[in-house]
Design a protein that fits this description.
It contains nine helices and 13 strands.
Length: about 300
């Protein structure tokens, strides 16, 4: 079995099954020789689609294990007959803590206080609290559940929607009820995957249904939100936005969202923390041991081999 790993130290620090032929490709321009023998590939994190395009040069490839939870960019490049697995669980903690941090910072006016501090101004103000807010989590998978765990203790009311309704371990309502829930929601946290169904989900109608002063937090994917529609609402001061992802991304320097005082933007750093590598290593170790033993893989998105 030939495994292509993304980082130079991984062959030494990972607990790998015996008998592996291991190569490394970190996304730099020159890939290693022997791509035609690779059957298990772990593309480097946040390296764009270039490394994913190498799959076309891997005739023996059977499994691709991403280090991202979202696979919308890589999935179209996966050859027929190859199993794609995502990194569900790896980024839950980091992404959830950023979602809550963005909500708190926006509600409590932290960006305004920082800007005032740069002027030496003591800008006392009364701000909304997260306590007593009505929070709607849109896309209640592992990240959405992690967001709710971190909201526990903030004394806010939480409701959840996902593609399918369920009752355990907590009630989750279907997307069909979104029109009824939006007027209720004071904070909307987007944690949906990027699919044809969720592209443009947060459009002008979605935003218009939110109450005045509502906050939209996006830690999912930029195209989930209609940027032009959001800009209209935020620039008018009716809604607030806290975005870790944008469309387009990166957001151009001259984009009008940057100038909106009610928009807080972070540069897609939800999963990119010190918590990432330990969890990524554990996932890859477990997947390689399962694969070497002929056991079912975890986090399978497409099962073709």
């Amino acid at each position: 079995m030939t495994v292509l790993l993304p980082y130079a130290d991984w062959p030494d620090v990972l607990d790998l099954p015996a008998g592996l032929d291991v190569a490394v490709y970190d996304g730099t321009p020159a890939p290693p020789a022997g791509l035609d023998t690779v059957d298990f590939y772990v593309p480097p994190y946040l390296a764009g689609t270039g490394p994913a395009r190498l799959m076309a040069q891997m005739p023996a490839l059977r499994v691709v294990q991403t280090l991202t939870a979202g696979v919308d960019d890589i999935r179209p490049l996966v050859p027929d007959g190859v199993t794609l697995c995502n990194a569900r669980g790896v980024h839950d903690a980091s992404t959830a803590e950023l979602a809550v941090a963005l909500a708190l910072a926006s509600l409590r006016g932290i960006p305004e206080f920082v800007r005032a501090g740069e002027r030496g101004a003591w800008a006392h103000d009364t701000r909304p609290s997260l306590a007593d807010r009505r929070v709607l989590i849109v896309g209640y998978g592992s990240v959405g559940a992690a967001v709710e765990r971190r909201l526990d203790g903030f004394e806010c009311e939480v409701r959840r929607v996902a593609r399918r309704a369920r009752s355990e371990p907590v009630p989750v309502e279907p997307f069909d009820v979104l029109p009824d829930l939006l007027p209720w929601a004071e904070v909307v946290v987007l944690t949906v995957p990027m699919t044809d169904e969720t592209r443009g989900l947060v459009d002008a109608g979605f935003l218009a249904a939110l109450p005045d002063g509502a906050l939209v937090v996006n830690v999912a994917r930029g195209p989930v939100v209609d940027t032009d529609a959001l800009l209209v609402e935020v620039a008018a001061g009716r809604l607030r936005a806290a975005l870790d992802v944008t469309d387009p991304e990166p957001l151009p320097a001259d984009h009008p969202l940057w100038a909106c005082p009610d928009a807080l933007i972070s540069p897609h750093v939800g999963g990119d923390t010190t918590a990432f590598l330990p969890r990524a290593r554990r996932l890859v170790e477990q997947q390689l041991h399962r694969y070497a033993a002929g056991e079912p893989l975890a986090n399978v998105i497409t099962a073709d081999y």
